[in-house]
Automatic annotation (TrEMBL):
Domain 2Fe-2S ferredoxin-type, first and last residues per copy: 3-96
MF (Gene Ontology): 2 iron, 2 sulfur cluster binding; dioxygenase activity
Stored Pfam families: FAD_binding_6, Fer2, NAD_binding_1
The species this protein was found in: Giesbergeria anulus
Keyword match Iron: yes
Reported cofactor(s): [2Fe-2S] cluster; FAD
Keyword Metal-binding in record: yes
The FAD-binding FR-type domain, residue ranges: 103-203
Source superkingdom: Bacteria
Record's protein name: Benzoate/toluate 1,2-dioxygenase reductase subunit
């Protein structure tokens, strides 16, 4: 039985390979065209040192000058000695170009385009090639705008199921992708995607999670929640989803379904507009409680526009709370 290894490169590119328990991760990578930096294969030089962010593995023999006991205890590995015994995520301290690899390209077609609100479009694409698509929940791809040579970046809003995957797209007036999707797009239209990309993705859950979404920044969290629903979590998970206007509040039924499937998951919504009829008016920071911060024993994930990211950072400083980990992704609407 082989295991999936996700290599996360410094430039945000992710490549997936398969590795059997009997071969080293470095050998498996070279066999599949990913040239991890390597000067020896004996655990002596340390050139192939990487960080195993998640997964189970064993290490062969190596000398302390190549990998110290302290480094090994922290999760550093020598890929020339590492043998995977589960799926793993490995951070490589080099760019994808330096490792002679690049983001993969996939050809697909549109399955469905659906307006969820005046501001949000749901896009579903499908294709046989997508059955081989691997990504870490939270990551994004570059979608080529049909009929052009330009692409726009969008986070996955679902996992791949039967060769199909979905996105939440901000409907930007005059935007290239928005104009296509709200105008001429039809099921069956060809569309290409390149990736996956990005360092914003779900890590192993080792403590409570606080998830903060702004607008279509909800997309990576619905993909993460699909993964959590599959694997479960012993830790509490809370999502706060904020939008500007009432009409921008979409996919609430999907969040309710996740709350029914995941016993320790809860969520709240809020709307910033003073004219809103929503019971919770204001910004996401107004609905973060001390209980959700767990005195800092919490991993915070945030995806939203730059002002929201800055506001949350300021809120944390004012509360005097430093989360165990704070992962965030800023985005601006693509035109």
């Amino acid at each position: 039985m082989s295991h999936h290894i996700a290599f996360q490169f410094e430039d945000g590119v992710t490549r997936f390979i398969d590795a059997s328990p009997t071969e080293t991760v470095a050998d498996a990578a070279y066999r599949q065209g990913v040239n991890i930096p390597l000067d020896c294969r004996d655990g002596a030089c340390g050139t192939c040192k990487c960080f195993a962010e998640s997964g189970q593995y064993t290490q062969g023999e190596y000398i302390d000058e190549a990998l110290t006991q302290e480094e090994a205890a922290q999760g550093y590995v020598l890929t020339c000695q590492m043998r995977a015994s589960s799926d793993c995520v490995v951070r490589v301290p080099a760019s994808s170009a330096a490792c002679r690899t690049q983001p993969a390209h996939y050809d697909a077609r549109i399955r469905e385009v659906r307006a969820l609100s005046p501001s949000t479009i749901a896009l579903s694409i499908e294709g046989d090639s997508l059955k081989k698509l691997g990504f870490l929940p939270g990551q994004y791809v570059n979608l080529q705008v049909p009929g052009t040579e330009q692409a726009r970046a969008y986070s996955f809003s679902s996992l791949v199921q039967d060769g199909a995957v979905s996105f939440l797209i901000r409907n930007v007036p005059g935007g290239l992708m928005s104009s296509y999707l709200s105008g001429s797009a039809q099921p069956g239209d060809a569309i290409g995607l390149t990736g996956p990309l990005g360092s914003f993705y779900l890590r192993d859950i080792q403590r409570p999670l606080l998830l903060l979404a702004g607008g279509t920044g909800l997309a990576p969290f619905t993909a993460m929640l699909e993964k959590i629903a599959e694997q479960g979590s012993p830790h509490p998970l809370h999502l706060i989803y904020g939008v500007t206007h009432d009409a921008d509040l979409v996919e609430v039924d999907k969040l309710q379904a996740f709350a029914a499937r995941i016993p320790n998951f809860s969520f709240a919504t809020c709307v910033a507009s003073a004219e809103s009829a929503h019971p919770h008016k204001g910004y996401v920071t107004q609905y973060i409680t001390p209980e959700q911060l767990h005195d800092g024993n919490v991993d915070v994930y945030l995806c939203g526009p730059p002002p929201m990211v800055d506001a949350v950072n300021q809120f944390m400083r004012e509360q005097g709370v430093k989360p165990a980990n704070f992962y965030y992704e800023k985005f601006s609407a693509s035109v």
